[in-house]
C-alpha cells in the first residue's frame, strides 16, 4: 500500500463559499494507508458496528467516507450515501424532513466551515427519536498539538467536545453514549506506534478527554407543547397564591 501524496489530501471545504459540497478521498486514503489513520479507523469501525446493529427503521444515511461501510451489521434495508447516491450541499440536503431513522457521520463536522448549520440540517431530516452517530477529531489531543505536521489535519478545524455538546443541547439532541479513541501522537511509522501503545492502554482510565478522536450517539428529541385547559386558566385568574382566593369582577359603568 502506498502512502497518499500531500496534494491528494483534500476534503470538504470548497473554495466556492456559496456551496458546501465535499470530496472525502483524501481522508479515506489517510485512514486506509497511514499507521495513525488505520489505528483510528479500526477503533471507530468497531464502535459503529457495535452500535448500529440494534437500530431499526425505514431509511439510513451515511455522510462522508463513502468507500468505507460504517453501517455494517445494521438491519435497515433502505440505505443511502452522500456522494454515491446523491451529490448535495450539506446545508440543504434534498431529503424530506423527519424521514431518516439513522445517520452516520464520520469526520464531517471538522471539515466544514460552519458545522452548526450541518447539525441543523441533520436534525431536520432525522425522524423523531432517530439516531445520529458521529465521530470527530479532538482539538485537545496529540492530533491537535501536532496538526501542522500532518497535511490532512492541517486543513481540519478540530472540535472541542465541550463546544460541540453545547451546540447539540441547543438543537435538542440528547446524548445517549460515546467513546474516545487513540492516545498516541500521529507517528508516520508503525514501529513507533507500537512502542507507544501503552498510551492507549492507560488513556481511557487516566486522560480520556485527551483522546485523538471521539464518537457520540445522539437522539433527536421533540419538544411537545402542553395545552392548558380552559378550567386551568380559570384557576389561574381566581387563585392568588399566598393571599387566599381573589375574585375577578368586571367593572360596570
Descriptive notes:
The protein has 253 residues and is α/β, with parallel strands linked by helices. α3 (115-125) links the parallel β3 and β4 (126-137). The longest helix has 18 residues, at 35-52. Strands 2-1-3-4-6-5 form a 6-stranded mixed sheet, with helices on both faces. It is built from 9 helices and 6 strands. The chain has a single domain (6-224), classed as Vaccinia Virus protein VP39 (Rossmann fold, 3-Layer(aba) Sandwich). α1 crosses α2.
Question: What does the secondary structure layout of this molecule look like, with pairings?
Answer:
Layout: H1 25-33, H2 35-52, E1 59-62, E2 78-81, E3 100-106, H3 115-125, E4 126-137, H4 142-145, H5 151-154, H6 161-170, E5 173-181, H7 190-195, H8 198-206, E6 213-220, H9 230-238
Features:
253 residues; Rossmann fold; six-stranded mixed beta sheet; disordered C terminus
What strand order characterises the main sheet?
A: 2-1-3-4-6-5
Largest sheet, strands/sense/barrel: 6 strands, mixed
Shape: globular
How many independent structural domains? 1
Amount of helix: 25-40%
Please identify, by name, the CATH architecture: 3-Layer(aba) Sandwich
Q: What is the level 1 CATH name?
A: Alpha Beta
Low-confidence parts, pLDDT < 50 over ≥5 residues?
A: 1-21, 243-251
The number of helical runs is 9
Q: Evaluate the radius of gyration.
A: 24 Å
Compressed to H and E, one letter per element, the order equals: HHEEEHEHHHEHHEH
Amino acid at each position: 500500500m502506498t502512502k497518499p501524496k500531500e496534494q491528494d489530501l483534500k476534503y470538504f471545504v470548497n473554495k466556492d463559499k456559496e456551496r458546501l459540497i465535499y470530496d472525502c478521498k483524501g481522508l479515506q486514503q489517510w485512514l486506509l494507508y497511514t499507521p495513525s489513520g488505520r489505528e483510528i479507523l479500526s477503533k471507530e469501525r468497531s464502535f459503529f458496528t457495535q452500535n448500529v446493529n440494534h437500530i431499526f427503521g425505514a431509511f439510513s444515511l451515511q455522510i462522508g467516507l463513502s468507500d468505507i461501510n460504517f453501517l455494517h451489521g445494521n438491519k435497515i434495508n433502505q440505505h443511502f450515501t452522500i456522494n454515491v447516491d446523491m451529490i448535495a450541499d450539506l446545508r440543504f440536503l434534498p431529503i424530506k424532513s423527519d424521514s431518516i431513522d439513522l445517520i452516520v457521520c464520520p469526520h464531517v463536522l471538522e471539515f466544514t466551515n460552519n458545522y452548526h448549520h450541518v447539525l441543523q440540517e441533520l436534525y431536520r431530516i432525522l425522524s423523531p427519536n432517530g439516531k445520529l452517530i458521529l465521530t470527530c477529531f479532538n482539538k485537545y489531543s496529540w492530533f491537535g498539538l501536532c496538526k501542522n505536521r500532518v497535511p490532512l489535519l492541517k486543513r481540519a478545524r478540530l472540535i472541542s467536545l465541550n463546544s460541540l455538546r453545547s451546540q447539540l443541547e441547543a438543537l435538542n439532541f440528547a446524548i445517549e453514549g460515546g467513546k474516545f479513541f487513540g492516545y498516541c501522537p500521529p507517528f508516520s511509522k508503525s514501529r513507533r506506534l507500537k512502542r507507544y501503545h501503552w498510551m492507549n492502554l492507560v488513556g481511557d482510565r487516566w486522560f480520556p478527554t485527551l483522546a485523538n478522536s471521539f464518537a457520540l450517539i445522539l437522539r433527536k428529541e421533540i419538544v411537545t407543547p402542553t395545552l392548558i385547559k380552559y378550567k386551568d386558566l380559570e384557576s389561574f385568574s381566581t387563585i392568588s397564591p399566598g393571599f387566599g382566593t381573589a375574585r375577578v369582577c368586571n367593572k360596570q359603568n
